[in-house]
Design a protein that fits this description.
There is one protein chain. Helices cover about 80% and strands about 0% of the residues. The protein is mainly alpha-helical. The chain has two domains: about 1-50; about 50-83, no CATH class. The longest helix has 28 residues, at about 20-50. It is elongated, with a radius of gyration of 25 Å. The two termini are about 40 Å apart.
Length: about 80
């Protein structure tokens, strides 16, 4: 991800200031900041509620390459349960 350089941010700020004015630009920035904060909070809530133990069991059963898929098909269920 390239991101923004400081000169890019200055140009964007000047154009935004010219188009919207200082009050509107301040309001837009405040609302954008609140939105980012709410998104982070929502992400943290979702991550806290995920059953990580169950997910790790599911990931172990998903083949990562064709050789693992073939091995899983060949191996009988009884041997898998012993592992």
């Amino acid at each position: 991800m390239g991101g923004f350089h400081i000169l890019d941010l200055v140009v964007i700020a000047i154009v935004g200031l010219a188009l919207f004015g200082p009050k509107a630009l301040q309001s837009i920035a405040r609302n954008a900041g609140k939105g980012v904060g709410q998104a982070k909070t929502a992400k943290e809530k979702v991550m806290a509620e995920l059953p990580l133990e169950d997910l790790s069991k599911v990931v172990q059963k998903v083949p990562m390459n064709p050789q693992q898929a073939i091995q899983m098909l060949i191996t009988p269920e009884k041997e898998k349960e012993q592992d």
